[in-house]
Amino acid sequence: MTSEVNSEQAAWWNAAGQGWARAQDIVDLVLRPFQDLLVDAALERPRDRVLDVGCGTGAVTRAIADALDGACVGVDISETMISGAKQQGNVRFVVADAQVHTFEERFDLIVSRFGVMFFDDPVAAFRNLLRATTPGGELCFITWRTPDENPFMTTAVQAAAPLLPDAPAPDPNGPGPFSLADAGKTRKLFEQSGWSGIEISPVDRICTMPEKLLVPYLSNLGPIARALKEAEESERPRIIGASEVRSTRSCTATRCGSQVPFGRSPRQLHSDWRCHVSRLSRISPDQPRVSSSACTA
Ligand SMILES: C[S@@+](CC[C@H](N)C(=O)[O-])C[C@H]1O[C@@H](n2cnc3c(N)ncnc32)[C@H](O)[C@@H]1O
What we know:
Strands 1, 2, 3, 4, 5, 6, 7 and 8 form an 8-stranded mixed sheet that branches. Helix 3 runs parallel beside helix 4 (about 60-70). This protein is α/β, with parallel strands linked by helices. The two termini are about 40 Å apart. The longest helix has 16 residues, at about 5-20. The protein contains 11 helices and 8 strands. The chain has a domain at about 5-165 and about 170-205 and about 275-285: Vaccinia Virus protein VP39 (Rossmann fold, 3-Layer(aba) Sandwich). Helix content is about 35%, strand content about 25%. Bound molecules: S-adenosylmethionine. The site of S-adenosylmethionine has 23 residues, from helix 1, helix 4 and strand 2.
């Protein structure tokens, strides 16, 4: 049984999800360091059943299922995202609002890669996830730190801003990529939701992509994709040009990999992603919490 309260987010992610799903191979390449971090956390101890919240097209869900050789469920509010998720035997995907969905089973690990910052009532949502966790079970997820610490995210937004004069200003307290950036506030909402053993640690990763994938990445995701959708055909090269230049400046570039005959190997762009990893547990009276070294920055 499911219902949905985050209808604005559902509408947003059903529309934005088309570009996200188109660029998912690039996103998964760029975000691979965070997938590896969550797989390592999953492997710390035996797990029977894992839930991936805001799973998108499910790369992390499938990677954890493969690593554990166990059952995993991916939940996402966006039908578009889930329709792009490749099914496999030990993985099941559900379209549902994780804030209110009544999960039929209990999970001994809940993970998320950038999928838990979009709830309109985060306390209710994390309480609902606590209900879906077995006693002694854990939650481990990755969220962004502040916009200032993440220039790769913000330069594209700044480039798009003058091209989107009617776009509403983002609400720093509402659902959005940076809604859990403040570790102090986030800790309080975890406590209010009833979680124990709360650890919020900074985690920095360098994410890499071949330079030729930057334009497909920018034009399918976030504000640039929206600007392109709304722009006149003649305006598009200017939008792409501005965002490409600004984003490239926020990265470092190297040439590596195989040599191209009579030329230089293609450039790779490296961006610094400054995030938090949060570890929470549902303490069972007879089971002390296990150390979480794999998830510490
Ligand atoms: C930034 S994307 C991350 C997708 C995926 N975890 C990944 O790393 O590729 C955020 C995801 O959270 C999902 N989402 C947002 N609000 C949600 C909610 N209330 N319940 C379930 N999923 C939600 C979106 O549909 C979207 O797929």
